[in-house]
Design brief:
The complex is a heterodimer of chains A (121) and B (171).
Chain A lengths: L1 H15 L2 H12 L2 E2 H7 L4 H13 L3 E6 L2 E6 L1 H44 L1
Antiparallel strand pairs in A: 1-3, 2-3
Chain B lengths: L1 H5 L9 E7 L2 E8 L3 H9 L1 H7 L8 E7 L6 E8 L2 E13 L3 E5 L9 E9 L2 E9 L3 H9 L2 H17 L7
Antiparallel strand pairs in B: 1-2, 2-8, 3-4, 4-5, 5-6, 6-7, 7-8
The chains are: A mainly alpha (121), B alpha+beta (171).
């Protein structure tokens, strides 16, 4: 999982390469905020802030929820947890699948050795 | 005989590694204790394939397994789970013996991933790298979001793994 977190952070790197987006993330980390509030705080147009939020959202760093006419942004930790849980289940499926494969391969190897011995007589 | 001594017992944890390589790709890596010609055979011969692809612990019954492993050939797996049947099917788009297999996963329509498996032999063991590349981030995320139906299956799997104890069942 540590490995996974690292690759996830790599994927998020582009989103974090921008100073404004890092600031926005820090801000949302302190408390949830609407796009309008964030645009005001960072002295940006609503459209500009929407673009930044979009980038953070696609990287899974931020989630947004629209209630009435206000879109609230929060840190995307839940998403990350969900994703990690999914990957862990996926890993367990493959782990047990490959365990079975190991057994099949082991058996074929044994069979080959026996055949080899028979051939040598 | 020497091969057995060379192959160190794999550690019980992290034998199977899963990484999200990019927005649309998940990669599974595992080293199998055997030469590549045998491992490749186990991936491509139906009578061998059906013995490991569906771990008993998943609680699924494999009703049929047809693999026509050649470029343009198709595969079809039919499972029964709690009384209902599900089919998984697709086409092999690349077949390079002992080195590489690529197949499509068509049961999910346009959102299906393309699976690439590469095999590399090292000191009598085979490193298997399996990548699922989704057509978009959304398609992969849909997979993450829609696992609810699978949760029960996976919960059972988890319970079973705990009961068995991690790493048991190895020869």
């Amino acid at each position: 999982m540590v490995h996974y977190i690292r690759t996830h952070l790599d994927a998020s790197f582009a989103a974090l390469s921008d100073a404004t987006r890092r600031g926005v993330l820090e801000q949302i980390g302190r408390s949830d905020a609407s796009i309008t509030e964030l645009a005001g705080k960072f002295r940006m147009t609503l459209t500009g802030m929407k673009k930044h939020i979009g980038v953070l959202e696609r990287a899974g760093l931020v989630t947004t929820e629209k209630v009435g006419r206000v879109r609230t942004c929060k840190l995307g930790t839940r998403r990350l947890e969900e994703e990690m849980a999914w990957l862990e289940r996926y890993r367990q499926l493959w782990d047990s699948r490959f365990d079975e494969l190991d057994k099949v391969v082991e058996e074929l190897k044994r069979k080959e050795r026996i055949d080899e011995r028979k051939k040598r007589g | 005989m020497n091969a057995r001594r060379e192959a160190e017992p794999a550690p019980t944890k992290d034998r199977t590694k899963v990484e999200r390589k990019s927005e649309r790709e998940v990669v599974v890596t595992r080293t199998i204790n055997g030469p590549v010609r045998i491992v490749f055979e186990a991936f491509t011969k139906p009578d061998l394939f059906k013995r490991w692809w569906v771990p008993k612990s998943l609680g699924l019954t494999l009703l049929s397994c047809e693999l026509d492993v050649r470029v343009g050939g198709t595969y079809r797996l039919v499972f029964r789970h709690e009384g209902s049947d599900m089919a998984f099917f697709g086409t092999y788009t690349e077949v390079t013996p002992h080195s590489r297999l690529v197949w499509t996963n068509d049961e999910g329509g346009d959102g299906g991933a393309v699976t690439t498996v590469t095999f590399e032999e090292k000191a009598g063991r085979t490193v298997v790298v399996l990548s699922d590349l989704y057509p978009s981030k959304e398609a992969l995320d849909a997979g993450i979001g829609s696992t609810d139906g699978m949760n029960e299956t996976f919960d059972q799997l988890e319970e079973l793994l705990i009961t068995l104890g991690a790493g048991s069942g190895r020869p």
